[in-house]
Amino acid sequence: MQADNTKNRKTRKILLAVGIPLLCLLAAVSVFFYFHPTHYRFNDRFVIGSTMEEIRARYGDFDKIGYISEEDPSSIYCVSYLVQPRQRGFLGTSKSKYYAIFLDENGIATRVEVVVGSENI
Amino acid sequence: MDYWYLDIGFYFIKNVETGKYLDVYNGNTSWFTPVNQYTFNGQTNQKWRVARGLDGHYRINSALDQNLFLNVSNGGDTEGRNAEISGNYPSSDAQNFEIIPTDAYTSFRIVPQCSNRSLCLGVSGSGDNASVQTMEFTGDDSQKWVFEEALIGKTPAKFDVFLHEGWIDSIDIKRTSDGFFLCFKSLGDILLEAGVPTLYNASGENYPTPAVDKFYDDWYPFAVEDGNGHVYGLVKMREQETDGYDGDNPSVSIPFINFEIDKLFSCVAAPNNANKQALYDEIDRVILDDDITYSSAMRDYFSNPASDGSYLIAEQYVEFLASTAVNGSLPAPDLYFELPQNDRIPTALLELNQKAGYTVFSFDDGAILLQNSNVLTSYEKAAILMLHTNNVTFNSFAAEVKFHSDKLAGLLSILSPYYNHALRADMGIGEEYESGFFDKYYGLESSMIQEQIRYHGEF
Lengths: 121, 459
What we know:
The complex is a heterodimer. By secondary structure, chain A is of the alpha+beta class.
């Protein structure tokens, strides 16, 4: 009986020693992906609702800017960051991808998405 | 009797007033199916074989069936008798016609023998499926017909529509003897001709109105037979560009994916945002998306070592590139200089210069020197091809296309990256590392290229 109790205590200690860190890790990962569901480099919950300037201040200059009309520099509808460049490999050249941030008429981000770049056309 | 001799052959028969065509209703092959007028679609039920009988009359046979003939319902010389198809009765005067020229032979009256020359065939309205009936000839345009030569079993039906709409010229259609067709007018230009300068994209890049001449100027329709007609695809043939809208690097890409070309016609017929978005999505599906089901007909065609389509594409591409030369000088693409060099292409260019006995490629200028951009020598063609597709010969180009199509159904195709690599044959400088594992189509002594040489000669 006493041997059983000792064995149970040991098992419990091991489980706690392994389980608690695992749970913490799981919690941390879940929190991370809660804030970075689209791409690990960008916090969607920060981006959505921010202005272009706020986003640029945090993540740097944009790699691409999309204009509704080329003649109107203020008609920006989308800004994006390159997240996967075109890369030559043994199985051909992969497509480039961008973390695209779509803006409303006030320049506020409303939606994000990883898109294939049009240079792949 | 006064005759104008129409050549025996297949025709589309167009009404002068309405611009619509004699059409067997719904393509139905039952006797007494009405023959009405309908908007041109190039289908078999709009094709007619016209043959001249011994007595000088004509019989008009539907391409649907060699035993179905244009017939005046119940014969006789009464107005209002409908045109229909019926069985083969050579001596029936309801199936024998005079074809009498009008308007300086630009159009014709179709006069049934049963009417004793008092009546002709005309249309009773302007819409699709309006009846074609016998009526007293008044000289009205609704009673006149134009016979347009149709090429049975040759030009794909959808290319016929392009032709008849005036979006392309017949010279734009290139073909091989094994039934491969290439429309050498870009999708962008076709859409511009059809009055659709932009598509619509509600939510992604190039929102909201991507210009067709910016994004689809390098993509060309092609067609291969599939037993029931043709399947249609899109092939990219791009020169060095600098506009930055779509890719700028030259290459050829052949997706083995069926392009639902009817979405193009729907978009042209009704260019609203929904149809434009549908066409935009369809084009993206063919040229960009991964994990798409391939076309068996295309795979079967390009996997046949005897097929000529790859050679036609390569030839057209080389001629197109040559046409962009300035003062006989065609610079090598930017990537040729930017990427880490292996020796294969420069060595091949050196050997080419030696074989030709003159400077085809100038290493000093980094350019191909063309003696005549309109008439290329085989050396110049080879130089242009290898600098833009990475293939030193046309046999290598075709072998690479076949390599991709073969792999679509191979064992490794269950792996998504491998399948997606096989789905589109991409030939261009720097498209992949030259490993020797997957690129045996570059090695001139390889079995792939030797096979091509056996079927097509060394080229």
